[in-house]
Amino acid sequence: MALSGGPKDGAELRIHDSVDELATDLADYIAELSEVSVKERGFFAIAISGGSLISLMGKICEAPYNKTVDWAKWYIFWVDERVVAKNHADSNYKLAKDGLLSKVPVVPGHVYSINDSMSAEEAANEYEFVLRQLVKTRTVGVSESSDCPKFDLILLGMGPDGHIASLFPNHTALDEKDEWVTFITDSPKPPPERITFTLPVINSASNVAVVVTGGNKADAVHLAIDDVGPDHPLLPARMVCPTNGKLVWFLDRPAASKLEASEFAE
Ligand SMILES: O=C(O)[C@H](O)[C@@H](O)[C@H](O)[C@H](O)COP(=O)(O)O
Known about the structure:
Elements: E1 3-5, E2 12-16, H1 19-41, E3 44-48, H2 53-56, H3 65-68, E4 74-78, E5 80-82, H4 92-99, E6 111-112, H5 120-136, E7 141-142, E8 149-150, E9 153-156, E10 181-184, E11 194-197, H6 199-202, E12 207-212, H7 218-225, E13 246-252, H8 253-256
Parallel strand pairs: 2-13, 3-4, 3-9, 4-6, 9-12, 12-13
Antiparallel strand pairs: 1-2, 5-11, 7-8, 10-11
The structure holds 6-phosphogluconic acid.
GO molecular function: 6-phosphogluconolactonase activity
Family: Belongs to the glucosamine/galactosamine-6-phosphate isomerase family. 6-phosphogluconolactonase subfamily.
Keywords: Hydrolase
């Protein structure tokens, strides 16, 4: 049974008894948002991360979703990417292509992978340029309160240190306010060179989901969600707070095991 609620800034928590149950709920959530966006805007602009998120999203490629989702209307982006060749084992594009995109009829021209023949800085600039063109045509929406793109859905994982996308604790990339896409060359999680959406872009989305499983992330989940006060480190995941959008945390029991909010305690 999923336990839902929202102790922090209107965020919704969906805590699941098993990873399988979480994966089904996540597929339902994505399919529903896709349907709403296609109905309202004619497109579904979705940005995905790397890591365990991709296998947790796997059910979206299975029945019934593989037949019911309007795949032709999907426009797919990466919240962050490692600066490696697209066929490299570390590539987030390769992970998603092998695990998801090769299994459903998405339109190849709607898959916005990062240019892998450039430096991190050039690739970030080019990705932002491409996004700006798509915002002009409204394929990707535009935020009412900033000049940022407004993705229909941004899907994030979270590391045990509380990083999301390629935004790591205490890194200067967290302070980036002007760029939509930035780059880092010193990622504490290998590989070191990455490009990433900035916080203003993540927080301009209509919907953001953070998908976290496993007891090794329970401390970070607690610090990201509970009312811990200023003496604790401000984790990047805690800075996810959509301005006009909706935030949902998908957690399994081990990841949620250190949450203090009484209604979520074991
Ligand atoms: O490219 C990356 O490294 C990711 O986009 C990163 O932000 C990931 O989502 C988290 O590190 C969680 O990864 P796991 O779910 O595998 O722990």
